[in-house]
Amino acid sequence: MTFVPYTLQTILNDVSIDPVSPPSGAVSPTTSTPRTLFSRQRTSPITDQKSPPSSPPGVGSRFRSLTSTGKQGIEAVEAWDNNLYVGTSDGFILHYIIEEQQAENSNEPQYISRLEGKINLELGRKVVEKIMVLPQVSKAIVLCDSTLSFYTLPFFDPIPVSIIPHIKGVSCFCHDFAEEGRIGEDGTIKLCVIKRRVIQLYKIGELVQLKKELPLPNGAITVARHGHSLCLADTQQYKLVNVQLNSATSLIPTPQSVSGPQPASPQSPGGFIPKPLIAVIGDSEFLVVSGNVNSQTTIGIFVNSVGDAIRGTLQWGSYPRAITVQFPYIISLLRNRTIEVHNIHDQQCVQTLELQPGIEPRGLCMGHGIKVWAEGLTTRLRQFQWTPHDMEPLDNIDCDFINQQLSRSYIVPTRLLLYNKDSIMGLLVTPMIVQADALLDTNQVEAGVSLANQALQNLSAQGGSRGGGRIRHELDYVYQKAGFLFLGETLFDDAFSLLSQGNVNPTVIIDLFKDLTIQKDKGCIPDVVLYEGVKKIVDNIGRIEDIVARNIEKNYSPHIQPDVETASATVELRRVLLLNAREAVQKYLLRERAKYNRDAKGSKTCKCIDTALLKVSATKEDTTLLFDLVINPNDCCIEDGVDALMNAQRYYALSLLYKTKGMFSDVLDMWTRIYDQELKDPNFTDGLKQIRDLLITDLDASEASVPIIEKYGWWLMDHSASDGVRVFMEAKAADSLNSDKILGRLDTYGNAPAQTYLEYLVQGKGSGSSEHHTRLACSYAQDVQSAMEDPKNVEVFKKMVHNYKELVAESERRMAASTGSQPQITFMAYMAQHTSISKFVQLRLRLLKLLQRSRQFDPNTVLEHLKSSEQLQLERAILYGKLHKHEEALQILTLELNDFVGAELYCVTGGHSIGSATTNNEKEVSKPPSSSRKAKRRMEKELPSLPVMTAEETQERRELCLLLLKMYLNISDQDLRQYRSVHLLNTQGLYLDLAEVLELLPDEWPVNVVERYLLQAFRKATHEKLQAKIVLGLSRGLLPAVQATR
Q1: Are the C-beta atoms of 484 and 541 separated by less than 8 Å?
Q2: What is the mean pLDDT of residues 500-507?
Q3: Which of 118, 251, 261, 389 has its CA 20 to 30 A from that of 579?
Q4: How far lies 396's CA from each of 123, 400, 553, in Å?
């Protein structure tokens, strides 16, 4: 069905024309009794006097013979905002105002017309030929008796001729259509005035200024302008004039007198001559009409600014009285009391309007627009609150207020005005809803939808938006009503597609499926309003089962035996239709979910959509949609979701729903029950990892998480000790756990879990508890002792000790011979270089590092664990150092292991270190020295400052170095004894007393062997002696001053 563009609606009825004017110069602000916009009651005439004789007929009156009956009446109309200006046949302007008035017993506003004033043009009883308003400059222009007069808007007060003089001798005038709705940069509007033999171009602003004159020998009857192009017509032909180039182009002949006898008329003694008609189409494009009154065909020709015919041609059955353009339509008033509407693009007639009997049409014009109440919208767009099934009627929405606000959109602007002898009508753009609803009511659903689609396409083509305003409600109404009508025919896919287009709240659709609605929390159901016509259908349509049953009953009863309720064919058909309905509603809900998640995430409607989708997908074999819904953030109603998923035995999906809602305790309860086979769900895989990850990553650090971690952490310990202990260490609330309580229970799970947790406490959290350090050391010792139960590990270590001793002996020999050798390393560093030999070595290094670094453990307790292991010499040496049993420690290092470097390091550090697990060579490789001065300075800055030794530490170092020297002097190998002793004296001799050293050194050693040490010792002694003298002298000098201050 083709969209009907226009509808005729009365704007002003029974306009009373006063045949006698008031006294000269009067402006009568007479107010008529208010009447509704659509009233057909006559009002009393304003005056009742006879009119004087009309002026003699001339050429102008002859051309008006087709549009005037010679009786008093309306001759010109113009509109702007809520002002209506009516020009009469006796030289008056009637000024009406259309205004809103709230009715006492209605929420919808009513509109009345009020006669604001009656203006006498003071030009005699002459016809008002044309009214033009120019809102851009707040002025109006009237052509009457070949005179242009000027007035102010909106009250039509005459402008004194001393300011703007009248322009006389005018045959026609026009404004520049290119300036429609705009104003020039200088604040003026262009005006074109045609006189008898001249074209005058004016600019009108505060004043009227003549800018240019062009000769026009034959004058003109009508004119139109767009930019620099004028299209005009005289009594012989149409012409195009370029006012910039001062050039004229002849087009086609204008209508001429009709041959043969014509009915006489006192106004047209010379016969009927059709008035030439011109309309502006667009940018320098015009429409001119060719033909005569009685010709069978009249054509309209489109021409451009150079006179070339473009597009196609228009055709009418008779010569029009008037034409006007409202893109993309051309509207023509014909002599047969009809109005034809043609499409500019294809020149086809798309609508014909027949006028009612008794209407005497006089003209058609395009005004600036006036607002008109569209009656057809009122009854269709009224909204009421919808109530779901199984609920009491709802009344918590102020629908009266909604409808009152919506009713303001029923005011439709119209620019096309049809004026008759005593009334004015508007050609309203026909509300699409009026036509479409009529089609829907006659079950022409496809045609109604097609009409809505066409209106939507036209709106898009014009750059409009459906997002708001009246057109959105119109389209929504049509799509919603059509969708429910299709739904009644079980055309589910088409129905839900239209309902989605119509923006119906999905809650209404969900309510059709009882098992998909929210049952537990009715507060999640949103408040919904529906259009009155749509709500009637929804109230009567029932549930989806009722729709299917009615459809089967209508199509198959009584043809199916025994009846449609029990026949196997209809039973199967019912099952298939219901299944199709669920499939279609699932697709619909997915579309709506994307829409509402974008625009109204978290709303009640989103809760209904997600809950319905969950219920639909829970019963399907394909769980893709179900898991996609529950894994991601959703708005499902949890109570209804639990019931649906438990009934469908979708336990893992339910746990994921719990998870998205932050109900972690319920998640873990469900997962542990599935893992323990209390509940069965094959979709739950890698369960222990999921439980561990949730406890570690999802639970927050609040106190509320502690009971959950303790409960399910110990459950996890029973199933996977490594995962369980990770939870106690890595959970965000781990700091809030009772570590001693956890350690107490971890002992029952073996050494490894407790050891891991102790490492976390000591090395991760930096615990200073002696018990934690002692237990960790004992745990390490237990691992070492367990490894030593394997004879292979013992043999590996014995061989390592033997190889180290050989390496030390060879290095000592070369150093003694001064042939050079690689730097000696400690036994611990040697072990670190050979960790790949055995895991046993790695275990020992781990224990050694802890014993050497930690000062919080109890050495006696750890030593008790190691007494039975003779091979653990280094461990015992460190523990002896912690117990200040330095002699036993140094004996192990020097006599059992030949770790002389470790022994000297032991003395230097006061028994705290026997070496590191990284050699000096490794350090150098890992951080090569830089040759740049800047790098050297940076390295020097990075060096830590050496702490100043206390007297106790100095004494302890002296004692340790002396003890080590005595052990060196007891070495049986003479060369080794001499080398190690001299090395110790050269490096640590400053801490030794010279006299004690000389007592210990063998007499047979030559002096040159200890020459370096002796020089250092003598220099030190001399330095101390001189320093003592200086201190003594300073003290004596300061003594009198100190005594004087006392």
Answers
A1: yes
A2: 94
A3: 389
A4: 63, 11, 38
Token pair listed for 521: 């929390």
The type of residue at 973 is D
Contact (Cβ atoms closer than 8 angstroms) between residue 128 and residue 74: no
The residue to which tokens 């290095």 are assigned: 811
145 CB neighbour count, 10 Å cutoff: 18
Q: CA-to-CA distance for 587 and 496, rounded, in angstroms?
A: 9
How far apart CA 668 and CA 595 sit, in angstroms, is 34
H helices of 442-543, where? Answer: 445-461, 470-488, 492-501, 506-510, 532-541
Distance of alpha carbon 150 from alpha carbon 157, whole angstroms = 9
d(CA 538, CA 509): 9
Residue recorded with tokens 């209904």 = 608
Alpha-helical runs (H) found in 819-945: 827-832, 839-853, 859-866, 873-882, 886-891, 900-908, 920-926, 933-942
Which residues, at least 6 apart from 622, have a Cβ–Cβ distance to it below 8 Å? none
Residues 6+ apart with CB under 8 A from 107: 400, 403, 404, 407
- Taking residues 659-683, report their average pLDDT: 94
Of 930 and 145, the structure prediction assigns the larger pLDDT to 145
Strand, coil or helix: 290: strand
User: Two tokens at 802?
Assistant: 């033997």
One-character DSSP codes across 618-675 = HTSS--HHHHHHHHS-----HHHHHHHHHHTT-HHHHHHHHHHTT-HHHHHHHHHHHH
Tokens of residue 1034, six digits: 């300073």
Report how far apart, in Å, the C-alpha atoms of 682 and of each of 314, 656, 820 are. 75, 14, 72
CA distance 77 to 275: 18
Task: For residues 83 and 95, give the distance between their C-alpha atoms in angstroms, rounded to a whole number.
Answer: 7
The packing angle between helices 470-488 and 445-461, to 10°, is: 150
Q: pLDDT tens digit string along 363-416?
A: 999 888 887 777 667 778 888 999 998 888 888 788 888 777 777 667 777 889
Cα 538 to Cα 674: distance, rounded to the nearest angstrom = 44
The model's confidence at residue 17, banded by pLDDT at 50, 70 and 90, is low
By CB atoms closer than 10 A (0-12, 13-18, 19+), residue 494 is middle
Q: Which two tokens stand for residue 927?
A: 């951080």
SS3 845: helix
Give the Cα separation of 628 and 900 in Å (integer). Answer: 69
Name every residue whose Cβ is closer than 8 Å to that of residue 44 and which is 6 or more positions away in sequence.
16
DSSP string, 313-362: EEEESS--SEEEEETTEEEEE-TTSEEEEEETTT--EEEEEEPPTT--EE
Which residues, in sequence order, are bridge partners of residue 353?
339
Take residue 261 and report the two structure tokens written for it: 């006898």
pLDDT tens digits, residue range 768-794? 999 999 999 999 999 999 999 899 988
| Angstrom distance (rounded) from CA 1029 to CA 1009 | 32
pLDDT digits (tens, 9 = 90+) for 28-75: 333 333 333 333 333 333 333 333 333 333 344 434 433 444 467 899
